[in-house]
Design a protein that fits this description.
Shape: elongated
Largest sheet: 8 strands, mixed
Distance between the termini: 36 Å
Number of strands: 15
Radius of gyration: 26 Å
Structural class: alpha/beta
Length: 487
């Protein structure tokens, strides 16, 4: 796979997860979390095969990877199939929006790994097409997104079901062992012994005598909220949290630009930014990507709603741009086709909602444009993570209306100070009046950073050149200006 050096999150987590411990991985997007949980998963599958003789059986997967969206699940399945070329194991996707009957038919054959969306997996379990009794490794990728999108209850139910199914299988085997010893000792004829053995096959179930019944869980997230920690505490209370230094922060290699717009000129500003950004992408990033034969010149335009995304895509086509679309108004099959065209480089612009912001590995993206500024800092972290992945460089342009000022300026200031942004609020009332940067004690976010420093809220309006702090490049915008150009 041409990977020689582990990323920070891989270096920190692999010794722990390979030892069998459950972990919560918290790291910036594009940091290699997928391999950080897939490699221990594959190691567990192969170790159980070689050391214990445990193999896959129909309807009974040995590992489950959960993802909040079909797009992310399909991507993870692709990575898993790539790994299976080196370590032989079977895998399949159980995704919504596709035929459940075909999935149920495939599950009649042995499968080691299921990559699934929570709703579809629960349906298959309910209908008896999947049993979780053999699952010894479960992963929840983008666990924060699942909780935020209302799948927290489904995630907790699935994790609890895996733990309960493993415990029930092990208990059933213990009871059957005790029963067999007593009844077989009392049997006097071969017919009685044969009848007892037949009964034991039902009671004993499929639990392997060498299986310890230990279930390992890995949750991966770019941000960790209370909803995620609550799920962990109720299902895997001994889980260890492993976090990188850049978790919840804007990555060093990103150049941020904030452009002040009104609702009337936002479309025009998008066209101006896109044209300027396209020229910069071609000049600045083409040479840097020449080594691997790729060109880092793609752009993602994020919108808050599917109606806004539809408007932006239509605007760009009217101005002779070729665009792909990834939002709710595009049918699932067509969306898959358009995403493939964008990922392959056939189309250089993708207009999308936050469905694409979570976990999708967009290594060819040089520029992210927030046509609609995100409503919370968590969405901002996920969106900007589509560029500058794996420690690379990227550019983020934010179109900021008056209602977005509070959160936008808080993010800008927090970035310059090297502070986390996940606790920032978009509500001006959450900040202490006259104390820029300090959230009220009863606000939704945390008012103090880990070192007791206040988290910045907004900077005084001023005309200033772009500030460069180390690798962090920030363009300071002025609320009195229509646009502030950064170079």
């Amino acid at each position: 796979m041409n990977i020689n050096t582990p990323t920070p999150i891989q270096r920190a987590s692999l010794p722990v997860s390979l030892a069998g411990e459950s972990v919560l991985l918290c790291a910036e997007t594009g940091s290699g979390k997928s391999l950080a949980f897939l490699l221990p998963l594959v190691a567990r599958l192969k170790n159980d095969e070689l050391a214990l003789g445990i193999n896959a059986r129909p309807k009974r997967p040995r590992a489950v990877v959960l993802a909040p969206t079909r797009e992310l699940a399909a991507q993870l399945l692709g990575v898993a199939k790539g790994l299976s070329r080196y370590a032989k194991f079977s895998s399949m996707g159980v995704l919504g929006g596709t035929s459940s009957a075909a999935q149920a038919k495939r599950l009649q054959q042995p499968v080691d790994l299921l990559v699934a969306t929570p709703g579809r997996l629960l349906d298959l379990v309910k209908d008896g097409h999947v049993s979780l009794g053999d699952v010894r490794f479960v992963v929840a990728d983008e666990a924060d997104t699942m909780a935020a999108q209302g799948f927290g209850a489904e995630l907790e139910q699935l994790l609890s079901s895996v733990v309960a199914a493993s415990a029930a299988a092990k208990e059933s085997y213990k009871k059957s062992a005790e029963l067999s010893a007593k009844e077989l000792a009392a049997a006097t004829t071969e017919e009685e012994k044969t009848a007892i053995e037949a009964q034991l096959k039902v009671v004993r179930g499929p639990f392997h005598p060498s299986d310890r019944g230990h279930v390992q869980c890995i949750l991966a997230a770019a941000t960790v909220k209370q909803s995620v920690t609550s799920i962990i505490q109720s299902t895997f209370p001994t889980t260890r949290e492993i976090k990188t230094n850049m978790a919840h922060k804007v990555p060093d290699g990103l150049f941020q630009e904030f452009v002040s717009v009104s609702s009337g000129d936002r479309a025009l500003r998008l066209l101006e930014v896109l044209d300027r950004g396209r020229r910069m992408n071609m000049n600045r990033y083409a040479e840097a990507r020449a080594m691997d034969g790729a060109t880092r010149d793609a752009t993602i335009i994020f919108c808050n709603t599917k109606d806004s995304a539809l408007f932006a895509a239509k605007l760009l086509r009217e101005n002779e741009y070729e665009v792909a679309e990834g939002h709710g108004w595009v049918a699932q099959r067509e969306r898959v086709v358009q995403m493939e065209e964008f990922m392959s480089g056939k189309k250089k612009i993708l207009v999308a909602t936050d469905v694409v912001a979570r976990g999708i590995d967009t290594v060819n993206v040089a520029h992210v444009i927030n046509f609609d500024f995100p409503l919370n800092p968590v969405d901002y972290i996920h969106r900007i993570g589509r560029t500058g992945r794996g420690g690379g460089t990227g550019r983020v342009t934010n179109l900021v209306t008056k209602r977005d000022y509070t959160l936008a300026m808080a993010i800008e200031r927090a970035t310059k100070l090297g502070q986390p942004i996940e606790a920032l609020s978009s509500n001006k009332a959450d900040y202490v009046q006259g104390r820029p940067g300090m959230l009220k004690a009863n606000s939704k976010g945390k008012g103090e950073s880990a070192k007791g420093e206040s988290v910045p809220a907004r900077a005084p309006a001023r005309r200033a050149p772009p500030a460069k702090l180390g690798k962090v490049n920030v363009c300071v915008f002025d609320v009195r200006m229509d646009v502030r150009t950064c170079h």
